[in-house]
Write the structure tokens for this entry.
Amino acid sequence: MKIKEHVEKLCEKSRELRDKIELAEGNGMVATDKIKTWQARADTIIFEGMAVCESKQTGLNWDTRIAAAQLSQLRECLSDQPSDVAQPPSVLHIDVHVVLQPSQVLFVEQAR
């Protein structure tokens, strides 16, 4: 498989992952730190892979060592996508004004 095909495959995986995260967030979950890290890394590798493909097409600054390293990064990123996409939030935000009596709200606001 060539660099361009790996970039396209990683783009597809990244899009699928973003869709899963969006669905999970709609259900009150949050993306895991591993997924956020992987997604940022994938975005960088996609950008760099596209730049390598562009340099090959134009013939400018084409270096086979850089291309080989990029291909290796693409393969590695594709193979190590974390499986846990989302998790429950660690802290739930509850508006105290909804659950407290008016006199309790005054007390809480004075305590701040």
